[in-house]
Design brief:
With 503 residues, the chain is an alpha/beta fold. 37% of the residues lie in helices and 14% in strands. The strands form 2 sheets. It has a 10-stranded mixed sheet with strand order 1-2-4-3-5-6-7-8-10-9, with helices on both faces. A two-stranded antiparallel sheet has the order 11-12. Strand 3, helix 1 and strand 4 form a beta-alpha-beta unit. The longest helix has 23 residues.
């Protein structure tokens, strides 16, 4: 494979939308975005390497086409075909093919695997000259999509030997935390223990230090990082050389497309980099080369990491390894907001960073409603009350408006900002006519944008004051009102909606 010499074509990529691929295994049409490399030739003598990416609907949120154009222009990548698979019922179709989790999520992951093997891959090979060589086939995904990609490559090395997982959901478990859970209940870890690693397996794994706030065993390591580190330790025990695992831990990295998109250049170079080229920004990488202890909780508590790991702090935090964790955002003073919002602000616990709470809430919401059918999500617990779908869209509307207020006030805009009437917004939203998955996907998009916005503010911006709905309000107060407002509605969802949900 080679990059075209024509300077007009270097870096050009073509995105092809496919809407006509029907899956018998999934019983539905599957939508794809196929990204073709510069100079793609469907009749090329040599097949193209190929990347199968879960959650393909996030292609542009991840800035993938733009990243590819830049890397191709820099002549860092060999041409490859990218197949971005749009999710449908991701909470059921993603997971581990062998077993759903304790809430029966992932119940169709086995069918999704069969779709990949017997329908999607033959289609892509036929139409886009994609390789069948397992060494040239890579699977990848973010969050639950990352777990799915890893599970596929682990169990099907005859098809794909490499996988990438951005903030992979390796917490996937067969027992609830409140039901006698132990670490032995993590499903992917158990599946890895049941077979030896393939000699050609390679994995690229990434976490962020702000992926979540949960620390189930109170050992000072968030679960997202600990589950990934423990998985890597299990891989090594199953015979995978540690050099075949690339691990990136992003200081300040969050569980969102903003962080994942910034890590894409490293992943893409790992998967498809041209020989004798260095990964993008390699000079800024901080390699932990002198610490040789295995991955594992006890060793991590003693500040030891595996020698193959990388800590990328230059993207999202100051570029040193000794930076202490950011302190939680201080609570707003009483004169920075209308007392009406005391209830919401009180739902951000003392000592909790409201932005960390915002980052964690999407997974909490997915666990609560991701398994519901569209009909169940139209349930209202009493006459005249909103349905679950309407409540979710109300949360989205409020988040957009509060974030807009924060933006204007942070930019020192002193124009009074109008209020809004939620009881008018909800009926006009058409929420009940939408698919629940569509609302949840929009929710993830809005949340990623909100977190990116607040992350961009300088410290002094948080205490800037403006006027909204006729009352003074600060950016700091809005940062607390957002997770508090959602916590209020999640409590109602758990106490009034879900217990009364019709069977």
């Amino acid at each position: 494979m080679y990059l075209p010499n024509d300077s007009k074509r270097i870096g050009s990529v073509k995105v092809v939308r496919v809407t006509t691929l029907h899956s018998g295994f999934l019983g539905r049409d599957v939508q794809l975005d196929v990204v073709l490399p510069p100079g793609h030739d469907p009749a090329a003598a040599t097949p193209y390497p190929v990347l199968y990416l879960n959650d393909g609907q996030d292609l542009r949120r991840l800035r993938l086409p733009a990243t590819l154009r830049q890397l191709y222009r820099q002549q860092l990548l060999q041409p490859f075909v990218l197949v971005a698979i749009h999710a449908h019922e991701r909470i059921q179709e993603y997971g581990t093919a062998a077993q759903p989790d304790y809430l029966e999520r992932g119940s169709r992951a086995g069918q999704y695997t069969e779709f990949l093997l017997h329908e999607l891959m033959p289609y892509v090979q036929q139409h886009y000259r994609a390789s069948t060589n397992p060494h040239e086939v890579v699977t990848a995904g973010c969050s639950l999509g990352g777990l799915t990609a890893f599970d596929f490559a682990w169990h099907h090395p005859e098809t794909a030997t490499r996988a990438g997982a951005f903030s992979g959901s390796f917490w996937w478990r067969r027992r609830a935390l409140t039901d006698g859970y132990t670490d032995a209940d993590r499903i992917m870890h158990r599946l890895v223990r049941e077979r030896e690693a393939h000699p050609d397996h390679q994995f690229w794994l990434q976490t962020g230090t702000l992926d979540e706030t949960n620390d189930r065993n109170h050992n000072g390591i968030i679960d997202a990082i600990e589950d990934t580190l423990d998985l890597m330790a299990t891989l090594v025990r199953q015979g995978l050389p540690d050099a075949r695992i690339r691990y990136l831990e992003v200081v300040g990295g969050r569980h969102n497309q903003h962080t994942w998109g910034r890590m894409l250049p490293d992943f893409l170079h790992w998967a498809f980099g041209l020989p004798d080229t260095k990964p993008p920004r390699v000079a800024l990488q901080a390699k932990i080369s002198s610490l040789t202890s295995p991955w594992g909780s006890r060793q991590r508590l003693q500040q030891r990491r595996h020698r193959g790991s990388m800590v990328f702090s230059q993207y999202l935090a100051p570029s040193t390894l000794s930076v202490p964790p950011m302190p939680p955002l201080a609570r707003p003073a009483a004169d920075q907001y209308n007392a009406y919002y005391d209830t919401y602000i009180s739902l951000v616990p003392e000592g909790t960073d409201p932005l960390a709470q915002l980052q964690h809430q999407p997974e909490q919401l997915r666990q609560l409603v991701g398994h519901l059918t569209d009909e169940q999500a139209q349930f209202a617990y009493a006459p005249g009350k909103w349905s679950i779908k309407e409540m979710l869209v109300h949360i989205l509307d409020t988040e957009r408006i509060f974030a807009y207020r924060a933006l204007r006030i942070a930019r020192q805009d002193q124009q009074p900002l109008a209020g809004f009437e939620q009881d008018d917004y909800v009926p006009a939203s058409g929420a009940n006519a939408r698919a629940l998955e569509s609302i949840l996907n929009e929710y993830a998009t809005v949340r990623a944008a909100t977190l990116s916005l607040f992350d961009s503010f300088q410290p002094e911006a948080y205490d800037r004051m403006g006027t909204a709905s006729g009352h003074p309000v600060s950016v700091r107060a809005l940062a607390f009102m957002l997770p508090g407002h959602e916590a209020h509605h999640l409590h109602i969802l758990q106490s009034r909606y879900l217990p009364n949900l019709p069977a």
